[in-house]
Design a protein that fits this description.
Blueprint: E1 5-10, H1 16-28, E2 32-37, H2 47-54, H3 71-78, E3 81-87, H4 89-97, H5 103-110, E4 115-119, H6 123-126, H7 129-141, E5 144-146, E6 150-153, E7 159-163, H8 167-178, E8 187-192, E9 197-200, E10 203-205, H9 212-223, E11 227-232, E12 243-247, H10 251-262, E13 271-274, E14 281-283, E15 302-304, H11 308-315, E16 322-329, H12 333-346, E17 351-356, E18 365-372, E19 375-376, E20 380-383, H13 384-401
Parallel strand pairs: 1-2, 1-3, 3-4, 4-5, 8-11, 8-13, 11-12, 13-16, 16-17
Antiparallel strand pairs: 6-7, 9-10, 14-15, 17-18, 18-19, 18-20
Length: 402
């Protein structure tokens, strides 16, 4: 979203307050937000709030002198995406009819950028044949994406299909609409999260991986056009839009899932990104029943787990798939880099993302260095999403050369 311009249109729904969070997320990601409102939207959220967050004047009146000339034409020309958040049944009807009776609908008619509509209304309204006919007509016209609605509680306290999608998911969908499509046609397998190795039916050996880095890579790869399979260990994270997810628990389950995704000859994918923190060991003989503490501390014999990435590297005979590993280590920068370079050689992979455990686990941001055969980049810090794009930039360049 960095450097992109979002025309954010708000209409008269109780869910209008959530549009403020969408604006905040866009601004935080580096986008410029041009706020628009219908007159009824101003009854639910104040223009001053939106202007304060975006740093831009709020377009409500078609004749506002803040936009000399034709306001709707100027906004549409600047926008990389036009988002209507929330979209009422009324504005959906007016867009379907091609009307231009306020700044929101006039801007939509002028827009040549993608248009995203996030409906919000009572379930009875959403299911009405007239609304569904209007939605179908807008879809038929093309260049428009509907984000939601979803099942959930609405303002009346009733539940059903009509609740506006959550701001974070709307932001992700907008990011996908404006993302570069440099990975279109590529099939990428991403692993994420920890593995849990059973001690007995209620206990396990595990690690502190949250899965956020792998999920960010999967989300950004899908946004950039890739066909993404995400193989996830036990984490409480939502599946990114456009991503096919396979849930596993143990290292052996993850290995089988990776093998299925890549195929016997590794031809089913263009790249494998092993962001998962796979357990190195598992209990060799897990108990079928819960171990009781009365007998004292048990002695747990361990067996070595398969090294999934190394096994793929050993099987790869050509240049595909591109292989990306992670080196999550303890120690100073020199120690972490030394481990990463060793993994690069021993596992026969193309890139290794080196990071220190204390700077990554549980953090929203990380500090990493990307190690390749020609050397290592300097360590730099960024959000998981920003780092995901850095990794995918390198992956895309390798895939293009091969």
């Amino acid at each position: 979203m960095k450097g992109r311009t979002v025309a954010l249109a708000i209409t008269g729904s109780v869910a209008a307050y959530k549009a403020v969070e969408v604006a905040r997320l866009c601004v935080k990601a580096g986008a410029k937000v041009l706020p628009l409102m219908t007159a009824s939207a101003a009854r639910f959220v104040g223009p001053v709030t939106l202007s304060g967050i975006t740093g831009e004047p709020v377009a409500i009146d078609m004749w506002d002198p803040a936009y000399p000339g034709e306001m709707h034409v100027a906004i549409a020309a600047r926008a990389d995406v036009v988002a209507i958040v929330p979209a009422t049944a009324d504005v959906i009807a007016r867009i379907a009819q091609g009307r231009a009776d306020d700044v929101v609908t006039a801007t939509v008619l002028c827009a040549r950028a993608p248009v995203a509509i996030a409906p919000a209304m009572h379930p009875n309204m959403w299911s009405h044949p007239a609304v569904q006919r209007n939605v179908a007509e807008i879809a038929r016209q093309g260049r428009t994406t509907f984000i939601g609605p979803v099942h959930g509680e609405v303002a009346s306290g009733e539940s059903g299909l009509g609740r506006m999608e959550e701001p974070a998911r709307i932001f992700e969908a907008l990011a996908a609409l404006v993302a570069p499509r440099d990975l279109a046609g590529r099939r990428i397998v991403v692993t994420a999260g920890p593995t849990h190795e059973a001690i007995d039916p209620v206990r396990f050996l595990g690690n502190r991986s949250s899965g956020k880095m792998g999920f960010a890579i999967a989300a950004r790869a899908a946004s950039r056009g890739a066909d993404v399979t995400l193989i996830a260990g036990p984490v409480a994270l939502a599946t990114p839009p456009g991503v096919s997810r396979v849930d596993v628990e143990s290292a052996e389950e993850m290995q089988r899932a990776v093998d299925r995704a890549l195929g016997d000859d590794l031809s089913r994918a263009d790249a494998l990104v092993m962001a998962a923190a796979v357990a190195d060991f598992r209990p060799s003989a897990p108990s079928a029943i819960k171990i009781k503490k009365d007998a004292g501390a048990p002695a747990i014999a361990l067996a070595k787990n398969p090294d999934i990435l190394a096994s793929v590297g050993a099987r790869r005979s050509g240049a595909r798939p591109v292989l990306v590993g992670f080196a999550l280590e303890t120690g100073d920068d020199a120690t972490v880099l030394a481990y990463a370079k060793k993994k690069l050689t021993e596992k026969k992979v193309d890139l290794v993302v080196a990071n220190a455990a204390h700077e990554s686990l549980g953090h929203a941001a990380s500090r990493v260095a990307i190690v390749a055969g020609e050397g290592a980049e300097p360590f730099s810090e960024g959000t998981k999403e920003a780092l995901a794009d850095r990794i995918l930039d390198r992956l895309a360049a390798l895939a293009a050369r091969r």
